[in-house]
Specification:
Helicase, Ruva Protein, domain 3; DNA damage; 7 helices; 10 strands; DNA-binding; 2 domains; about 270 residues; zinc; N-terminal domain of MutM-like DNA repair proteins
DNA sequence: CCGACAACCTGACGGC
DNA sequence: TGCCGTCAGGTTGTCG
């Protein structure tokens, strides 16, 4: 589930529940995610007031009045459950606010992570320091991307998944954006036809914005007291659609690159 | 620099 | 009903 739009949707869902609230109770139930929670996580968060929420790439940010930001990553299977009726095996971190709301970070595969870092130094958080621009931010321009791709012989799909070039894209949205721009996923980054390259930044933006919009409609389901997700209605043009027709009528194809599925239309994408 | 691959871990699903 | 293989939105490191 979690690429940039899903993290953005999550942060927007958490904001009204957490912002301005004091964390009354903090329980680290299963600290060993991709890397362990900071050992003092509980004491640093308990009693802290949440001053704001944000997002960097696929990471959610929870700022506190103690000068710490909680940085969470949802990995492959992570999500926050709101007011869960019961706490289960995969609820690894549980927060309770002064208003009596409970939030559980649920992540069966434990590829996600939770960390704390001084808010003022966030750009120096090692992962963030190595990251490229936000795809929806002002620095992600056609000029920037063209320069980053110039001379590169690697497949454009791999380059767009490289968080150092642009931070936040994952497998689904790279497939979708390349389809929208008409670029074959195997095309060398430095050899994309002018017209198609011109279309790439707008395509990436459009795909992400549409997905955030769709996430917005899912948000109401997400925030329901039952807490269970009504999963995203898939409106993807190629992802997960092997054998089904592209908008042009040709069948969507699937190939495997580096162990990951790539969906594309051989007729539309060059 | 590049691509392939493995590792981390659990759950869902299809085939038999 | 159950067992087994395959696959899944991410990240990081190694190898040739």
């Amino acid at each position: 589930m979690p690429e940039l739009p899903e993290v953005e949707t999550t942060v927007r869902g958490l904001r009204p529940v957490l912002e301005g609230q004091t964390l009354w109770h903090v329980e680290a139930r299963r600290p060993d995610l991709r890397f362990a929670f900071p050992p003092d996580l509980r004491q640093r968060l308990t009693g802290a007031r949440v001053t704001g929420l944000g997002r960097r790439a696929k990471y959610g940010l929870v700022d506190t009045d103690r000068g710490d930001t909680m940085i969470f990553h949802l990995g492959m299977s992570g999500r926050w459950r709101l007011d869960p009726e019961t706490i289960g095996t995969h609820d690894h971190l549980v927060l309770e606010t002064g208003a009596g709301r409970r939030l559980a970070l649920n992540d069966p595969r434990r590829f996600g992570s939770v960390d704390l870092f001084p808010t003022a130094d966030l750009p120096a958080y090692p992962v963030f320091a190595a990251m490229g621009p936000e795809p929806l931010g002002p620095d992600f321009t056609h000029g920037y991307l063209a320069a980053a791709l110039e001379g590169r012989s690697a497949a454009i799909k791999a380059l767009l998944l490289d968080q150092r070039i642009v931070a936040g894209l994952g497998n689904i949205y790279v497939c979708e954006a390349l389809h929208m721009a008409g670029i074959a996923p195997t095309r060398a980054g430095g050899r994309i036809a002018r017209k198609r390259l011109d279309a790439l930044v707008p395509a990436i933006r459009a795909v992400l914005e549409a997905a955030i919009e769709a996430g917005g409609s899912t948000l109401r389901d997400y925030a329901r007291p039952s807490g269970e997700l009504g999963y995203f209605a898939k409106q993807w043009r190629v992802y997960g659609r092997e054998g089904q027709p592209c908008l042009c009528g040709a069948p969507v194809r699937r190939r495997v690159d580096g162990g990951r599925s790539t969906f594309y239309c051989a007729a539309c994408q060059r």
